Amino acid sequence: xxxxxxxxxxxxxxxxxxxxxxxxxxxxxxxxxxxxxxxxxxxxxxxxxxxxxxxxxxxxxxxxxxxxxxxxxxxxxxxxxxxxxxxxxxxxxxxxxxxxxxxxxxxxxxxxxxxxxxxxxxxxxxxxxxxxxxxxxxxxxxxxxxxxxxxxxxxxxxxxxxxxxxxxxxxxxxxxxx
Length: 178
Prior knowledge:
By secondary structure, this protein is mainly alpha-helical. The chain has helices at about 5-25, 35-40, 60-70, 120-125, 135-145, 165-175.
């Protein structure tokens, strides 16, 4: 019986390992990290001017703000969407709402968060005392990074999660009597 030289065995082993590695390389996803980071990068902080007539005491506007505040995913949102809001986008995808209650407390909140500032009695504590303005609240909801770059709050208007009317509805709700 012939013996196979150790060099031949090593060469065969390396060839098999190379073929195996080549097969695995094709099976493993290797995305372009630079492209992903560029796509996921946030736009620069943006300063907004609150539109005229943004704040309203109209019950429908405040109801829309409350709905946005207390819900996240339109398909799982509690109750019917008030007039002017829909649970789905035009393409049929669920509308993403604010879900502000995940981080903030406010009157009548169900399972409020405690990460962000407590918005309970916001009108009495901040608006009536002159500490805050509606325009300040609008900017915080639209893009809070303008004055707090390290914020964890969502960037609602700058990245298109909300439109101007939805931000106005939220402002109207937060500063309303509840």
